[in-house]
Design goal:
elongated, 3-stranded antiparallel β-sheet, 11 helices
Amino acid sequence: MPKENLSEIGSSGLKHYSGIVQEEFIKELRTREDYIRVYKEMRDNDPIVGSMLFAIQMVIRQISWDVKPADETPEAKELADFINTCMHDMSVTWHDFIQELLFTMLPFGWCFNEIVYKIRDGFDSNGSGSSSQHTDGKIGWRKLALRTPESLDHWNLDENGGVQGFVQRNPTTNEIVEIPIYKGLLFRPTYYKNNPEGRSVLRNAYRPWYLKKLMEEIEGIGVSRDLAGLPILYVDPKITHKDATPEQKAFYTELKQLVINIKRDKQEGIVLPKLTDQFGNKLYELILLTTGGNRNFNTSNIIHRYEQRMAMSMLSDFILIGHSDVGSHSLAESKIQMFKTAIKSWVMSISDVLNQHAVPRLLHVNNMDVTKSPKISASEIDSPTIKELAAYISVLGSRGMRLFPNRELEEYLLDLADLPTDEHLRLFDAGEFEVSAPPAIPPEGGFVSENLL
């Protein structure tokens, strides 16, 4: 095949200028400064968004991470053990790394981490962060360090839209440095056009969040005005005239500001001059108009509707069940299952980046066999209980399904139950495993989970 046929001709269609992505059509989210400010406010200041993100982080934090060898050869198992030791030999724990990654990737749509290596030479008394639990002299991960979206100056993109580097502006020194892509890991919950800035999981929640925020502000103003009343101040016409003296104009400005700032608090009170005209009428008088506190719209229902839409956009509306008059246990179960399915896909995307980029690069710098790269994998989010698993296997056997010999299925079932597999599978491979007949019927009183069936 000619070499020219191997080259890339087209582009991803990503809209970018001088390394600055311009894909957003809403002006409030168009610039990086704007969308970071908005999503940061949503993440840190909104109770609904905060509870959704907190639920995601806590569910993923319960996941256990493991390293699986490429095959059953001693060399592959040794590489898997090496990667496993590197995961748990960093300056931060693996779970903290995952949590920080999620805290950035989900709201902002992307997370860039720099791969920082170290030589595993044992304990470092200088506290530099390069200490290691191992003394084999190999190169390991010191940390997979977060490079915050706020510090991004621009992306280094090639002519086809491929990401070549992360150009960072240090917020303290204002120094600009470029982190090449081979030294970094780019995590995104959504992949489209190879956009390095991905897509925030809060993007579809932005409009209901904005309207909810606006409604809450209006509600607060309305409550404040209902308690204080609508202030009306009658003043001497002379100070409003165009020929008023500078002192009169300044006094008029102060009175207008006084009306604007009227509210009910512990320091409430107004002082006005006691002046009357020749007929005894007051030249200055302040009155408050009240409405009785009734409104034609129920703002609580409106705000709740927007909160529901925000939660729906992230499949997290089950957190609102119990806060309204509708909802059932079975409905909550189905919504939670959908929520866990979404979380599982995000976990898989994290694993894919680690397995495709972080692990092979670490093996490469150690001159190890990259063709036998192990895989970092996460446990199931919702594993069945042993009782459910036993009942499930019994039902499968009673219906004539040949569970054995099937090494892959056997290993899966044993892993689900956290049972040892090495010796059992060795006998299987050697042909010493005796296949027993399945039970005719499931054990009496056996329970089968609907989720498993």
